[in-house]
Amino acid sequence: MSLTIDPSDPLPLYHQIHEQLRRQIVSGVLKSGDSLPGESQICAETGVSRMTARQALVLLASERLVVRQRGRGTFVAPPEVVRIRKKDSLHPHNLKREKTSDERDELVFIIRELYGKNLITTTGGNLSLRLAGDSSQLWITPSSTFKGNLRPQDMLRIDLEGRKLDREAGPPSSEHQIHTEILKARPDLNAVIHTHAPWATLLVLTETPFLPISSEAAFIGEIPRVPFIMPGSLELAQAVTEALGETGSAVLMQNHGLVVAGTDLRRAASTSEVIERCAELILRCMLLGRQPPTLPEGAIRRLQKTGQMMA
Ligand SMILES: [Zn+2]
Predict the structure, then answer these.
(1) Which of 63, 103, 106, 175 is catalytic?
(2) How far is the CA of 119 from the centre of ligand 1 (A)?
(3) How much distance in Å is there from the Cα of 200 to the middle of ligand 1?
């Protein structure tokens, strides 16, 4: 068995190793009772740290696919357990990930990147992107699916009314109306990213302003907020779209998370990451008992003007 890692893949290294071992178990290459490579063997084969190797094995154990025995090693679980896990649709690791050569490849790349950065959680968060060839259609993430290992072919095509365009496809994200309402109202935007970004969510939970602590933060400006509205409802989608207005690019949802829209997916992903990072800095300052200093007024005004032109 040989394990490899790809440093350019945004999925964390431990997850890449976990994915390969998992695939070998569910495909039967590794059989019940077989011993898995130990931490030192994984380190030697892939060059990762011992902690990373351990994380991969712990993740497999948490899925009950393997049994770890102190002092003896890690072994593939009994066949009945492996059979159950193989059927688990939340983990389609036994299926091949294929490139589609359309927008879906970029969507999956960005999902893995945001998942690796903890902005989207296992099932929380969703992304969409307009089709380059038809602005009335979009690719969107599926409903209730493990976000750490989505494949391009898992993406769904819907129209701006939320109707599925491929008959055999499963249901789109339960929050798809946020995406369709924004893209309907804003023909200038092409991508929407909804994340459960922890620091950004903490910012809205603590009613802390998004302070202009850096040129990036000033560039984005204060982020409009909507009160708690039932997730998945049209009411929430309409409130977010209204808060975004004609020029906005981000909205915070109380007790929920963040929505960012952009002219393209990369820009929306970068804005999501900047908001999360700045929210973390602002809140960490406050946790240390300090009010963070902000940029001078004149600089803030100039940066916000530029921000509006580039949203
Ligand atoms: Zn959500």
Answers:
(1) 175
(2) 11
(3) 13
| pLDDT tens for each residue of 144-165 | 777 777 888 889 999 999 998 8
How far is CA 204 from its chain centroid? 19
Clarify whether 175 is annotated catalytic: yes
How remote is the CA of residue 229 from the centroid of ligand 1, in Å? 11
Q: What CATH number does the domain located at 13-94 have?
A: 1.10.10.10
What's the rounded Cα separation, in Å, for the pair 308 and 261?
13
In percent, the amount of the chain with pLDDT more than 90 equals 56
Give the mean pLDDT of the chain. Answer: 88
Q: What kind of fold does domain 103-310 have according to CATH?
A: L-fuculose-1-phosphate Aldolase (3.40.225)
> How remote is the CA of residue 256 from the centroid of ligand 1, in Å?
6
In this structure, of 30-34, 64-68, 274-278, the range with the lowest mean pLDDT score is 64-68
> Which position has the higher pLDDT, 57 or 9?
57
Q: Where are the domains of the chain?
A: 13-94, 103-310
